[in-house]
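Model it.
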Amino acid sequence: MFVEDKILIGGDVYLLPKMANRHGLIAGATGTGKTITLKTLAESFSDMGVPVFLADMKGDISGLSKVGEMNDNVAKRVEGIDSFKLKSYPVEFWDLFGEKGLPVRVTLSEMGPVLLSKILNLTEAQSGVLNIVFRVADEESLLIIDIKDLKSMINYVVEHKDVYEPKYGSIAAKSANTILRNLITLEDQGGNDFFGEPALDLNDFIRVDDSGCGVINILDAQKLSLSPEIYSSFLLWMLSSLYEQLPEVGDAEKPKFVFFFDEAHLIFDDMGPEFLKKIEQITRLIRSKGVGLYFISQSPADIPDEILGQLGNRIQHALRAYTPKDQKAVKVAAETFRANPDFDTADVISNLGIGEALVSVLDDQGVPGIVQKVNIIAPQSYIGPVDDNVRSELINLSEFKDKYLEAIDNESAYEMLANKINQNQNMESEVPTTPPQAEAPQEQPQAEQAPETQQEPLTVGGFDLGSILGGGKPSGKKTKKTAQQKAIEKAATTAANTMAREVTKGIMRGLFGQMK
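Modeled.
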């Protein structure tokens, strides 16, 4: 709850807005109250005027869009807080599959080969081939927007590997075939819905409503959780894109955007050291761009030490120590706090009730506070999921409905390569079977020439290439091309390709290989 320009977490523990982008952790066993804590923090950031993104793994966070209801449990948790008021919050629903929210799409060029290799579970050799495919696409201005584009590019590069191998190294057909097979699996998991256009503009996540409250962007992840590689890669794409795109703001008085990673262990499972190093770098630097990251998982042990050490604000719900592994997790959780002399932290963690938590936040000097045991304050919005009809109504009222609802299939690598094949086939079919002099038309007197038909001048970049090359009007015959027309079209193609190459030279790829 946002009160007196601070976030009340529970008891007398407040999170200062200035320290909110120093990142945080919400941990605890299933059913101990992590979701309620997540909701109360999201509400507070919204009231502060800070937009939020979070994933709804179970469908019950959608209640943020509905006014809360008073009951005995809520009344008990807000007793003595006069400013507490039941209310709803501005919510935007999103869904990678377009079923319970506006569709979220990303082009494969934006995703990049590094994250795509993670989704496809590729080996190092297979990832190398995928990188070559993306490099060729970049240099030849062939946008890889969706899966059919990538399939076409892979086949194209393999078929012309004698051209590309001297420059890029070995292109193994076996690795290419493995990538193609894995793409079929990705399609079965909904990849055709996710990869495409119109692509998500992350600026549409970072906004406030008319009253100044930050919009809470809820990604429905109930179905997505069954495809953990897509889920984790999408979140990492978002994280890296925010890092690449947002300007530096330094130590701001409050965050510009807050990003909650639910089921954080899915992000770090089986992650290689190089990948982890990049995430560590982003986590360390992104706070200077005004972004606060909050990881939600069952145990602090789910978060690598390199990341855990950067999470200054911590909320620990109960952990049960039934097995030696559980006891180790409790010990790890206790060691992440600054000890309180009034109690044994490890013992308290094992005996917390539902809604209770151990909390430590940074003070105004950035120093972790002594851990405190508190009852997490109740959310002001509805506890539980909203009705599907309410969700649908809110989706239909969204200002982004027309922008994202319908998929668009723009010309990209698939169409451009198909056109290239057709042009080559047409050129082969036009090879003359008789000597050129036999086809050369006899020059007719000026008076006997057929009337000319009007055609649009051939232009590139707004310039009439016919005039530039000194040519006159084109012939009235549409079935045959004069030598002059062919020269003009060749010049146009060369000019267009040159311009495209110049544009492509400006393409850069960020830490995860996504297009900048």
